[in-house]
Structures are given as structure tokens and as C-alpha cells.
Amino acid sequence: MQIDWLTVFVGIIAISNLILLTVLVALCFTVKRVINNAVKPAMDQLKTTVSDVDNMVKNIDSRTVAIMNITKDTADNVSSHIKKTTILVSEIVNPPLINIAGISAGIFKAISSLKSDKKK
Fold it and tell me: Quick check: pTM over 0.70?
């Protein structure tokens, strides 16, 4: 019996291809297991983190709007009080001061007039 080397060679190639195919299938299952064990939990955690950050941003946004509204209301209130105080001072304090200034000027003029009369 003579060995046909071509048949042996083709047989070795066929066996090698079957071994490679088996390794490839095993590799596919390994990649699937890695994806299920590592990537999916990481993606789920990422989704949770993004959702948490989104909620925080919404909370910060609503708080910022509330603070801005309070600040505007406070500024308007202070401005109103300043206007009222200015009007009050001008209506209540200014007339007596003007009268006192007028009386002082009159007294000063009278004293000056008396001094000039004494010198003559």
C-alpha cells in the first residue's frame, strides 16, 4: 500500500480547519461572556450615572431660578424702600431744614446789621 501524500496533506488541512473553527466558536462564546459579564453592567451603571447627573442638573436649574426670583424680589423691595425713604426725608426733613436755614440767615443778617449800626 502506497501512501498518497496529497490525500494526507488535504486531510491535515481539513483537520486544521476544524480545529480553527472550534477555536473560533470558543472565542465567540468567550467574547459573548465578557460582554455579558463586563460591558453590560458597565453600560447599566453608565445609564444610571447619566440619569443621576440629569436629575441633579434639573434640580440645580430649578434652585437657580428660585434664587434668581428671590434676588429680583429682594432688589425690588429694597429699591422701593429706598425710594420711600428718600421721599419721606425730602417731605419731612427738608422743609424744617430750609426754615432753620432761613431763620439762621435772617438772624445772621440781623446781627450783622446791628454790628454795623453800632460802628456808626
Answer: no
